[in-house]
C-alpha cells in the first residue's frame, strides 16, 4: 500500500487536511481511551486505491528549535513515504521556512505535490502562482476548512502511486511484526530468531525503499518478519521519539498477520507500551506479548506470575494474547516463539461452521438471558461468521440497540470458550433482522 506523508511548517493546516483525507473513522474499540485522538497515521482511499497517510507535523521534537523540527519531519517523510504532500499557506506566499523544507525534499528523489491551503474561494486562486518557484510543478489550491480542491490534489498524488505488487501477499507465508518502544530489544529479538534458524531465504523490498522484510522457512512453514530494516539502521535523532516509534509500529502492523508486542522485563510496563499494544489490538492482528530481558530480572518462583498479573491488568484489552518470557541475549525460550506465532496465525484464520456457532450462541443465551430495555427484550435470530483475520461474527437481532457492550462481551467469551482463538481478537457485531 503506498504511503503518503504531509509535511509543512506549523499552522499551514496539516492536521485539518489529514483529517479530511482520512475521515473521521471511529475505532471499534471501547476500552482503550484516547487511542484515536492525536493520530498521525491513517488510512485513506482514492480512486479505489487504499493508501496510508502520515501527518509528520504530529511528530514533535520538544527540545529542538522549530527549524530543526521541520528538518527532522521532512526527513521522516523522505524515509517513510512514497509520495510527499508539501503543504503551504496560500495567504503567506512562499516563506523562508517553506524554502528550507523544499531544500531538504530536493535531496530525495521522492515525488512532491504542493497543496496550497487556505485558498477558501475562487478569487484567491492567483495566490498559488508564487509557489511554482518551489520547483515541484503545478501547485494545487485547496481549502481544508471548506474541504475544496483536495480531490484534484489527490488525483495528482495518485499518478505517483507505485504499480500494485503481486508478491506482497503470499498467502502461505505467516507475516509477523516485532513492535515495541525503543530499546526493549526488538532488533536483538529478530536477530535471535533468525540466528536460531540460520535459514534466511530472502529479503523482500516493501513498498518504500526502507521497508525491508526478512523471509525464512522453519519446520516447512514460511515466515516473514516485516520491516526489519527499521530495526537495523540506527542513530537518527527521531528514532527515539515516542511518536516515531508508534508510527513505525503502525506501518509494520499494516502488513502483518501476527504481532509480537515486546516489553522490557527489566523496566516493566510503562504508558508507551500500553499505547503500542493498543494499536496492535486495534489493528485486529493476532497478538503475542513477549517479555524480553528475562535474564536480567532478579526472580523467585513468584516473579513470573506477578509479572503476568501486571500485564493482564495493564493490557486488559489483550486478555486473549499469550505471554512469553524470553531473553534475546541468552536465547532463553526463543525456540518457543515461532510455534506460538504459527498457532496464533492459525487461530486468527479460524472459520467455524454456522450451525456450530448457533449451537454455542443459543447455549449461551439459555445460561444468561438476553438483556431488556423497558418491555423490549433482545432477540437473537441467528449468528454467522462473516470473515477471518480476525474472526468476525455477525449476530442478527431484533434491535441492535439492545445488544449492550457487556452482553456482547459475554457472547464473545462464550465463543472463546467453545473454540480456540488464543492470540486472536474477535469481532462480534449486531445487525438488525426481525
Ligand atoms: P530495540 O530498540 O527495541 O531494537 O532494542 P535493541 O535490540 O537495540 O536492544 C536494546 C538494548 O537492550 C541493547 O543494549 C541490547 O543489548 C539489550 N538487550 C536486548 N535484549 C536483551 C536481553 O534479552 N537481555 C538483556 N540483558 N539485554 C538485552
From TrEMBL:
UniProt-listed PROSITE patterns: G_ENGA
Residues annotated as binding GTP 1: 8-15, 55-59, 117-120
Top-level division of the source organism's lineage: Bacteria
Annotated EngA-type G domain residues: 2-165, 174-349
Residues reported in the UniProt entry to bind GTP 2: 180-187, 227-231, 292-295
Gene3D superfamilies: 3.30.300.20, P-loop containing nucleotide triphosphate hydrolases
GO biological process: ribosome biogenesis
Family according to the record: Belongs to the TRAFAC class TrmE-Era-EngA-EngB-Septin-like GTPase superfamily. EngA (Der) GTPase family.
Free-text function comment from the UniProt entry: GTPase that plays an essential role in the late steps of ribosome biogenesis.
Protein name: GTPase Der
Species in which this protein is naturally found: Natribacillus halophilus
Amino acid at each position: 500500500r503506498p504511503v503518503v506523508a504531509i509535511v509543512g511548517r506549523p499552522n499551514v493546516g496539516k492536521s485539518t487536511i489529514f483529517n479530511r483525507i482520512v475521515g473521521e473513522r471511529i475505532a471499534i474499540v471501547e476500552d482503550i481511551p484516547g487511542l484515536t485522538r492525536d493520530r498521525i497515521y491513517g488510512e485513506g482511499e482514492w480512486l479505489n486505491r487504499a493508501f496510508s497517510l502520515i501527518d509528520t507535523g504530529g511528530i514533535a521534537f520538544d527540545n529542538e528549535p522549530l527549524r530543526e523540527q521541520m528538518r527532522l519531519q521532512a526527513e521522516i517523510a523522505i524515509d517513510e513515504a512514497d509520495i510527499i504532500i508539501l503543504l503551504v499557506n496560500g495567504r503567506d506566499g512562499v516563506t523562508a521556512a517553506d524554502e528550507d523544507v523544499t531544500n531538504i525534499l530536493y535531496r530525495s528523489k521522492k515525488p512532491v505535490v504542493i497543496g496550497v491551503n487556505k485558498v477558501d474561494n475562487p478569487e484567491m486562486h492567483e495566490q498559488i502562482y508564487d509557489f511554482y518557484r518551489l520547483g515541484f510543478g503545478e501547485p494545487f489550491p485547496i481549502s481544508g476548512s471548506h474541504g475544496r480542491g483536495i480531490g484534484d490534489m489527490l488525483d495528482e498524488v495518485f499518478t505517483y502511486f507505485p504499480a500494485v505488487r503481486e508478491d506482497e501477499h503470499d498467502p502461505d507465508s505467516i507475516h509477523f511484526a516485532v513492535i515495541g518502544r525503543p530499546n526493549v530489544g526488538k532488533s536483538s529479538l529478530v536477530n535471535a530468531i533468525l540466528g536460531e534458524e540460520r535459514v534466511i531465504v530472502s529479503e523482500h523490498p516493501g513498498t518504500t525503499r526502507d521497508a525491508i522484510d526478512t523471509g525464512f522457512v522453519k519446520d516447512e512453514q514460511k515466515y516473514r518478519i516485516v520491516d526489519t530494516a527499521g530495526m537495523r539502521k540506527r542513530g537518527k535523532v527521531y528514532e527515539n521519539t515516542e511518536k516515531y516509534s508508534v508510527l513505525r509500529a503502525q506501518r509494520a502492523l499494516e502488513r502483518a498477520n501476527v504481532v509480537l508486542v515486546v516489553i522490557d522485563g527489566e523496566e516493566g510496563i510503562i504508558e508507551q507500551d500500553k499505547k503500542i499494544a493498543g494499536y496492535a489490538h486495534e489493528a485486529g492482528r493476532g497478538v503475542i506479548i513477549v517479555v524480553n530481558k528475562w535474564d536480567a530480572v532478579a526472580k523467585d518462583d513468584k516473579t513470573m506470575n506477578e509479572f503476568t498479573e501486571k500485564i493482564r491488568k495493564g493490557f486488559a484489552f489483550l486478555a486473549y494474547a499469550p505471554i512469553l518470557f524470553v531473553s534475546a541475549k541468552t536465547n532463553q525460550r526463543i525456540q518457543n516463539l515461532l510455534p506460538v506465532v504459527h498457532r496464533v496465525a492459525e487461530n486468527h484464520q479460524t472459520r467455524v461452521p454456522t450451525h456450530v456457532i448457533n449451537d454455542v450462541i443459543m447455549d449461551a443465551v439459555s445460561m444468561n438471558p438476553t438483556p431488556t430495555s423497558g418491555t423490549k427484550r433482545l432477540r437473537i435470530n441467528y449468528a454467522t461468521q462473516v470473515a477471518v483475520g480476525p474472526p468476525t461474527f455477525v449476530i442478527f437481532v431484533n434491535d441492535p440497540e439492545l445488544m449492550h457492550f457487556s452482553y456482547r462481551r459475554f457472547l464473545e467469551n462464550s465463543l472463546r470458550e467453545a473454540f480456540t482463538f488464543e492470540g486472536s481478537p474477535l469481532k462480534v457485531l449486531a445487525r438488525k433482522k426481525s
